[in-house]
Amino acid sequence: MKEVSSETILENLFDGVYLVGKDKHITVWNKGAERITGFEKKEVVGKGCADNILRHIDAEGRELCVSECPLSFTLADGIIREDNVYLRHKQGHRLPVSVRISPVRNDQGEIIGAIEVFTDNSSSIQLLKELELLKQEAYLDSLTGIGNRRYADITLQTRIHEYQNHGIGFGVIFLDIDHFKVCNDTYGHKTGDDVLVMVGKTIAGLLRNSDIVARWGGEEFVILLPTINASFLKTISQRIKIFIQRSYIMVGTTKISVTASLGATLGIPGDTPETIIQRADSLMYVSKESGRNCVTIG
């Protein structure tokens, strides 16, 4: 077998890999990184890793690039670090990844940079693949790539059946993007569509394999969560709200972000698809009336 160059090996890795110097400017960006993030090498190399590109945040929505950047810590102390974080995809949504950061040293043992290897950690990947298979049956929203209203209806009927016959609890979140019409009117329908994609994929990246998110219509989304209690319903609802607020798209040099109002509820005896959706929808409107960008649970 002919000797294979390190560059060829790097470009054939499925994982994303990038290298930074001491100044945290990116010098290497492999094809795996392009595939996972959507950013091409020419858009990234030469830029600082926090320059509106990846902008890692933790599970609570806190930005790590300012004061808690694991890459900065490794550049300073040479310790290998591993973490689960969320990076910003080129389309704007937040994507869960597992990262491993290692120092790069010269022949004298001095730290001259750091290398980060990251893996797509989306629990929703399999769900999205299943939805792709269902496309011919019209269960997929063609714009966002998540489930559509029909898919949500069918899944909701299943959840209610499981609850009534087997006592398996479930939760419903009804979400509406705040001031979406203003965004559409100001920046155009193409940007509005990009915002919908960003929100849908951000939500999908936060869910378990058993959960689903579907576009209900317009700027409304429904999230269905089986085997859930009140505490987890509150936690995931707040996390979705925060992550949407932390996501953004770039139109030229303009940064566009949105917020969302959420209504969340657990299934109760006697629920039908209509009653639980109506209850979650009403709770969402309470969030709207409370100033938007908040969660109401009932």
How many strand units? 12
CATH architecture of the largest domain: 2-Layer Sandwich
Q: Please estimate the helix content.
A: 25-40%
The end-to-end span amounts to 65 Å
The major β-sheet equals:
5 strands, antiparallel
- What is the H/E string? HEEHHHEEEHHEHHEEHEEEHE
Mean pLDDT: 89
Unreliable sequence segments: none
List the total number of helices: 10
Largest beta sheet: strand ordering: 2-1-5-4-3
CATH topology of the largest domain: Alpha-Beta Plaits
CATH superfamily of the largest domain: Reverse transcriptase/Diguanylate cyclase domain
Oligomeric state as shown: single chain
| Count of the domains | 2
Question: Which radius of gyration do the C-alpha atoms yield?
Answer: 21 Å
Class from secondary-structure proportions:
alpha+beta
What's the CATH class label of the largest domain?
Answer: Alpha Beta
Proportion in β-strands: 25-35%
Overall geometry comes to: elongated
Write a compact overview of the structure shown.
The protein is built from 10 helices and 12 strands.
How does this structure look, described?
The chain has helices at 6-12, 31-37, 41-44, 70-77, 125-133, 149-166, 180-187, 189-204, 230-246, 273-289, and strands at 16-21, 26-29, 81-88, 94-105, 111-120, 170-177, 212-217, 220-226, 249-251, 254-256, 260-266, 295-297. It is 37% helix and 26% strand. The mean pLDDT is 89. The protein has 298 residues and is of the alpha+beta class. The strands form 3 sheets. Strands 2-1-5-4-3 form a 5-stranded antiparallel beta sheet. A 5-stranded mixed beta sheet has the order 7-8-6-11-12, sandwiched between helices. A two-stranded antiparallel sheet has the order 9-10. Strand 11, helix 10 (273-289) and strand 12 (295-297) form a beta-alpha-beta unit. The radius of gyration is 21 Å and the shape is elongated. The chain contains 10 helices and 12 strands. It has 2 domains: 6-120, PAS domain (Beta-Lactamase), CATH 3.30.450; 125-297, 2-Layer Sandwich (Alpha-Beta Plaits), CATH 3.30.70.270.
